[in-house]
């Protein structure tokens, strides 16, 4: 039996055999640590009952580990040169489908319907994400009308810290709110830069997103207004909430009574607000006619 794809010696041999070079523009840093690969599959708690979507299979190191444990794996890869390589390397795994696809342009609900034998089984996303596009991919996933049972993804440590941040910290911002608005975020484990070929300049971490146990209370009147307020409040992080709101709503808007009613000090910095407070603020501003 061939060695696992994720073994460093095998990865090197594959790249040599197919004349491949990691493409920086596609964020290609291949994982070459079997322990980490298995740890990812464990963290996502993959079972034969799961439909798994992998974004960016690369040479198939993670795909192979997923195939051994999942019911079905749908792997979406943008780099057309890797498609025949993946098809070759993973030919023995009949539960894997490889598609040439830019995930940002993917109609994920349609793919789930057409590619999975039983689309009603749990849907999990597992990926070593390309660094250059981590946040847009996460936002794309979370704004797609699909119930994700688990999103288990590798990213730069710094982005992982933003996703899992709590109010009052430097890392807490628009991305934190956008993600935690829908999902519970937990840092699963850190991964050294030495686990990749080629080696990136930064360390990584795995973040585990699972559905929130309860909805945000109060629910915002609309997602659009909620994110308008959140983006506006974080526009100038060093400024007070009051100054950010003034910039967002216009100099003449008299929103201080709204803050007062909510018990929010206008002098706090935006990162002090919880998601529930952003939601309450959105609703109160909308009701007062300031939005
Ligand atoms: N999964 C492999 C591994 O762990 O070794 C490769 C991970 S590498 C960090 C990211 C992969 O995502 C690359 O294979 C890259 O070509 C692919 N990729 C980049 N942008 C993409 C996009 N928009 N849609 C789908 N795949 C993409």
What structural class is derived from the secondary structure elements? alpha/beta
Spatial gap, N to C terminus:
63 Å
What is the residue-averaged pLDDT? 97
Shape: elongated
Would you report the number of β strands? 9
CATH architecture of the largest domain: 3-Layer(aba) Sandwich
Question: What does this 3D model show about the protein?
Answer:
By secondary structure, the protein is an alpha/beta fold. Helix 2 (34-43) crosses helix 3 and helix 9 (223-233) crosses helix 12 (275-287). It has two domains: 8-211, Rossmann fold, CATH 3.40.50; 223-287, Helicase, Ruva Protein, domain 3 (Orthogonal Bundle). The longest helix has 13 residues, at 275-287. A seven-stranded mixed sheet has the order 4-3-2-5-6-9-7. It has a two-stranded antiparallel ribbon with strand order 1-8. Helix 3 links the parallel strand 2 and strand 3 (72-77). It has twelve helices and nine strands. Bound molecules: S-adenosylmethionine. The site of S-adenosylmethionine has 22 residues, from strand 1, helix 3 and strand 3. S-adenosylmethionine (SAM) binds next to strand 1, helix 3 and strand 3.
């Amino acid at each position: 039996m061939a060695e696992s794809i994720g073994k460093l010696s095998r990865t090197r041999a594959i790249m040599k055999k197919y004349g491949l070079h990691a493409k920086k523009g596609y964020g290609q840093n291949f994982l070459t640590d079997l322990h980490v690969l298995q740890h990812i599959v464990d963290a996502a708690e993959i079972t034969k009952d799961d439909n798994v979507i992998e974004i960016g299979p690369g040479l198939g190191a993670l795909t192979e580990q997923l195939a051994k444990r999942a019911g079905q794996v749908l792997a979406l890869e943008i780099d057309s040169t890797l498609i025949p390589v993946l098809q070759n390397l993973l030919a023995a795994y009949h539960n894997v489908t490889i598609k040439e696809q830019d995930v940002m342009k993917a109609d994920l609900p349609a793919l789930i319907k057409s590619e999975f034998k039983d689309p009603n089984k749990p849907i999990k996303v597992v990926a070593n994400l390309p660094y250059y596009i981590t946040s847009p991919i996460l936002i794309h996933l979370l704004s797609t009308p699909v119930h994700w049972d688990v999103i288990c993804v590798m990213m730069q440590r710094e982005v992982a810290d933003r996703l899992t941040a709590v109010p009052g910290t430097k890392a807490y911002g628009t991305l934190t709110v956008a993600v935690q608005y829908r999902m519970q975020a937990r840092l699963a484990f850190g991964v050294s830069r030495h686990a990749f070929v080629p080696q990136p300049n930064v360390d990584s971490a795995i973040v585990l997103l699972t559905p929130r146990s309860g909805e945000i209370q109060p629910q915002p009147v609309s997602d659009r207004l909620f994110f308008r307020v959140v983006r506006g409040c974080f526009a100038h992080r060093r400024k007070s909430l009051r100054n950010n709101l003034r910039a967002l709503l216009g100099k003449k808007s008299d929103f201080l009574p709204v803050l007062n009613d909510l018990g929010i000090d206008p002098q706090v910095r935006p990162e002090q607000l919880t998601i529930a407070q952003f939601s309450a603020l959105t609703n109160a501003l909308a009701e007062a006619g300031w939005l």
